[in-house]
Design a protein that fits this description.
Structural class: mainly alpha
Order of helices and strands: HHHH
Organism: Heyndrickxia oleronia
Radius of gyration: 34 Å
Protein name: DUF4190 domain-containing protein
Number of strands: 0
Keywords: Membrane, Transmembrane, Transmembrane helix
Strand content: under 5%
Mean pLDDT: 80
Helix content: over 70%
Distance between the termini: 94 Å
InterPro entries: YqfX-like
Number of helices: 4
Shape: elongated
Length: about 120
């Protein structure tokens, strides 16, 4: 038996099985439907109060991180400039991200200046 005959026989048996499945309604396919919550465009919902508290909490934590970043950056001018300057700069970016933009910017600026002075100027003294 050559390959073409074997292929034809296999194809015929496949089509025969498919026709039998259609007649018996014995399907082997898997179906699914996604269920999602309905979307509400109503802005006057009760969750706004809790969202405001979360936003206020993030803003307060941003100020705390901002002040600590500024303290680290100022301390880095006098003590361990590379370590404290890097920490102040990183915390400054975190503070800016959490809403304390001015404190974060000052922390980043002072921390970078301290890093530059600590790496390039201080080794000569």
């Amino acid at each position: 038996m050559n390959d073409e005959t074997r292929y034809d026989k296999l194809e015929d048996s496949f089509h025969k099985e498919r026709m039998e499945d259609k007649e018996n309604h014995d399907y082997h396919e898997e179906t699914a439907a996604e269920v999602a919550a309905p979307v509400s465009f109503n802005r006057d919902r009760g969750n706004d109060v809790s969202e405001d508290k979360d936003h206020e909490h993030a803003h307060v934590s941003g100020k705390v991180i901002g002040w600590s970043a500024l303290a680290l950056s100022v301390l880095s001018l006098f003590f361990l400039p590379i370590v404290l300057g890097a920490a102040g700069t990183i915390l400054g970016f975190v503070a800016r991200r959490r809403g304390a933009r001015a404190l974060g910017a000052w922390s980043i600026g002072i921390g970078v200046v301290s890093l530059i002075l600590g790496i390039f100027v201080q080794p000569f003294f």
